Amino acid sequence: MKLGYTILYVKDVPRSVAFYEDAFGLGRRFVHELGMYAEMDTGATTLSFAAYGLAKSNLPCGFRENDPSGPPAGFEVAFVTDDVPAAYQRALSAGASAVSPPATKPWGQIVAFVRDKDGIVIELCSPATQS
Question: pLDDT tens across 103-121, in order?
Fold first, then answer.
């Protein structure tokens, strides 16, 4: 088994695609013509967006919508970069909300956190080093 997709349920798929292009430099791989689903070009694992309406049709048990004004959900998406401070500033300039600025962790990795327009936590981090 391997991880194939991470799908984020969002209020507005085209808005999320545009934001992730601007904030993180990702390219779009596929955007459905009805705007209910999209995939970003992120490498081996696909980052996708699905509209709340699609999520509701797929999850009859329901789900909790993201709320940027409330506490974030219990997960994050992490992007690895060689320049965390620049990535952090780019995300903020594109409209991300600051959570925590770049800081060096005890294991040597530089890590920062922002929230996207739906309130999803995004980690920006340098490559982890093996010791």
Answer: 999 999 999 999 999 999 9
Average pLDDT over residues 19-39: 95
Domain with 75, as residue range(s), is 5-125
Q: Max CA-CA distance within the chain?
A: 47
Question: What DSSP string runs through 4-17?
Answer: -EEEEEES-HHHHH
Looking at the structure of the chain, the number of domains it has is: 1
With a threshold of 0.85, does the pTM exceed it? Answer: yes
Dihedrals phi, psi of 58, to nearest 5 degrees: -90, -25
Structure tokens at 128: 């982890």
First to last CA, the chain: 27
Q: For the chain, how many residues are written?
A: 131
Residue 83 located in a structural domain? yes
Instruction: Categorise residue 115: left if φ over 0, alpha if ψ from -120 to 50, beta otherwise.
Output: beta
What CATH number corresponds to the domain at position 46? 3.10.180.10
Residue 130 lies in a domain: no
Residue 131 resides in a domain = no
